[in-house]
Specification:
The chain has 241 residues and is of the alpha/beta class. Helix content is 35%, strand content 27%. A hairpin with a 2-residue loop joins strand 9 (206-211) and strand 10 (214-220).
Length: 241
């Protein structure tokens, strides 16, 4: 199983404050990989770096065999990386369908877009019932589903999800986790940033624990789920995340 995404030796800064210290990790094709850590551990900066929103001072990011370090975000998206950002970042005044189609903005294959819309709505039937509803009037869980469905409309090889369960009711947390697994079964690799270790590790194949900008632990998700050091890895870090 080859690495689809590789971060090698990233050193990232906000002004004089260093956030990443020789950060290296990989996401293998077909896996769900989670990056865990407490507040200010550097998780969000990791996601921003992958998506081209934050350029590391040194180190490299490779995707599908090519160096994407420092590329503009639109070019990274076109290469096959989808994004489900923290707080979802939908267009609240636009309808569910309009938000969905925004996920295909870089595509021009109308028959393929129509086929993918049908496929995505079959995966998210709740959205199919609300196509004409404004996204801003939906519940948090429904909005999270829409953000995931929008990302799928770009036909990504990899989806990066930033805190996909944050602020959701327990019912929707379970449903979102089920949908992440369903997306992965369809062949999409998933890299997710999460604070809730038990939830993330329960569905992931591999996990990394980030502490103050450094990888403190890594391994098979099932092994990490049983590791007493997981709790300790959330304690430290004064770096900006």
């Amino acid at each position: 199983m080859s690495a689809l995404l590789e971060l090698q030796g990233l050193n990232s800064f906000y002004g004089p404050v260093q956030v990443h210290f020789e950060l290296s990790l990989e996401v293998r094709q077909g896996q769900i990989v989670c990056l865990l850590g407490g507040n200010a551990s550097g998780k969000s900066t990791t996601m921003k770096s992958i998506l081209g929103l934050q350029r590391p001072r040194s180190g490299s990011i490779r995707f599908d065999g090519a160096d994407i370090t420092g590329l503009p975000t639109p070019r990274i998206i076109r290469r096959g990386i989808g994004s489900v950002p923290e707080a979802r970042r939908l267009f609240p005044a636009m309808t569910v369908r309009e938000n969905l189609l925004m996920g295909a903005y870089a595509r021009s294959d109308k028959p393929g877009i129509a086929a993918d819309e049908a496929r995505v709505l079959a995966l998210f039937p709740r959205l199919a019932e609300r196509l004409a509803q404004r996204a801003g009037t939906m519940s948090g869980g429904e909005q999270q589903m829409l953000a995931m469905a929008r990302a799928l409309m770009g036909r990504p090889k990899l989806i990066c999800m930033d805190e996909p369960t944050m602020g959701l009711s327990p019912l929707f947390v379970d449903r979102v986790l089920e949908l992440i697994q369903a997306i992965n079964r369809e062949g999409v690799t998933v890299f997710m940033v999460e604070q809730n270790a038990s939830l993330a590790l329960a569905i992931a194949h591999h996990g990394y624990v980030l502490q103050a900008g450094r990888i403190a632990l890594q391994g098979a998700a099932g092994d990490l789920l049983q590791d007493h050091r997981i709790r300790d890895a959330y304690l430290g870090g004064a770096a900006t995340g």
